Amino acid sequence: MKKFIQALTAIIVFSSAGQALAGAGHSHGVSEPISKEQAVQRASLIKQQLVTSQQISSTWTEVAGGNTEQRSTAGGNLWVVEYANPKAEDDNKGKLFVFLDEFGNPVGANHSGDL
Q: Please, are residues 83 and 64 in contact by the beta-carbon 8 Å criterion?
């Protein structure tokens, strides 16, 4: 679990690193919220990064996103993309939930669906 949290933290840090190095010709205006389809695409990239970093097993590679919903939290709206892996060895880890803020930035991922 410690490695999972470290990997997720690295994902968040690296996803914002490009913004810190941005040059001229960009906007500091309000970002547009992403669509449901964009949330699924970004969550898929995060899932693949978790597989690549060996935080989750390689059986998750071929698992497609299922239920995708937006949740309202005290910190704002979050996209939650749920994955179900029928090949999971542990029944408690048969689902993966990827959380993104409304602009597509990764917030977290876990097997419980609770944030």
A: yes
